[in-house]
Amino acid sequence: MRIIRLAWSLLTLAVGAFGLIATYLAAWPESQFTACEIEPGRDTAACDESLIDRGGFGYVVALLLPTILCAVPVVFPRRSIAWATVGALIVSGIVVVATVGGVAMMLAATAVPAFVLAACHARLAAQDHTASIGGRSLLRRLRQQQQNG
Question: Is the residue at 127 inside a domain?
Fold first, then answer.
C-alpha cells in the first residue's frame, strides 16, 4: 500500500499547490493578469474586481475541493475509495460548472490522473505486495545462512 499512498500523495501535493496558487491569483484584480481595460465595450470598473469577488466562495471551494478529495485515498488506500474519489471529482466538476462556471476545469483536470491511479490500483498494490514479500524472503534467507554458517 505504500506505492499507492505515495502516488496519491504526489497527486494531492501537485493539485494542492496548483489550487493554492490559483486561489491566490483569483484574489487579485482582473486587471493584474488580463488586458480587460483595453477591450472595447468592456466595463473598466469590472477590471478592478477579482474572480473571487465575482464568483464568491464557490471559486475557492472549486479550487481547493480536488485537494481534499485526492487526500482521501492517501488515508484509506482501497480500490473502492479510489473509484469513489474519481466519481466525486466528476460529479463535483459537473456541479461546479453549473454553479460558478469555467473554474471547474481544475476538477476535470484532476479527474484524469485520479482515473489512471484508480485503474492502476490493483497493479500498484500487487507490486507493493511483491516487493514486501521479496524483502521478507531475503531476510529469511540471510537468517538461515547465519544459522547454518
Answer: no
| pLDDT recorded at residue 35 | 72
Q: Is residue 131 part of a domain?
A: no
Q: Do the Cβ atoms of 14 and 135 come closer than 8 Å?
A: no
- Give residue 36's domain range: 2-121
For CA atoms 92, 93, 94, 98, give the dihedral sign.
positive
Number of structural domains the chain divides into: 1
pLDDT digits (tens, 9 = 90+) for 38-90: 666 667 677 788 878 877 787 888 888 899 999 999 999 889 999 999 999 99
CA dist., res. 134 & res. 141, Å (int): 11
Whether residue 149 lies inside any domain: the answer is no
With a cut of 90, say whether residue 28 has pLDDT above it.
no
Q: Is residue 137 part of a domain?
A: no
Cβ(62)–Cβ(71) under 8 Å? no
Interatomic CA distance for residues 1 and 7, integer angstroms: 10
Sequence-distant (≥ 6) Cβ neighbours of residue 55 within 8 angstroms: 26, 100, 101, 103
Please say whether the dihedral angle defined by the alpha carbons of residues 78, 83, 89 and 95, taken in this order, is positive or negative. negative
